[in-house]
Amino acid sequence: MAVLPPSVSAEETPHTPEAIKAVSQSLQTNLKAGLEAYQKSDYLTACTSLALAVGDGRTLRWHNEGLIKLFKAKGEDTREYETEIIALDGAIGRLEARTKDVCALAQ
Q: For labelling, which of 11, 32, 76, 103 has a CA lying 20 to 30 Å from the CA of 3?
């Protein structure tokens, strides 16, 4: 989980560990709901839940981008977050493709 540099207070940024944790939990909840709905052949609910998970993934990416800018401005190392963005991009792309497939089943 992200840790703000000591030179940054939580009031300076929306990219707090608490905000990132909340989005991560939402992502997990939506993925689980989507999978459970898919297993029950409830494709409309699965489509909706997975689409919400894609949005959560994009929000996590936004948080990481914000942390990178913040850390660079404070002279901190950003490699960990840059690597995480690459991984997130791949995961979001795969999730988007699967979500489109599931949503097609719902129609």
A: 32
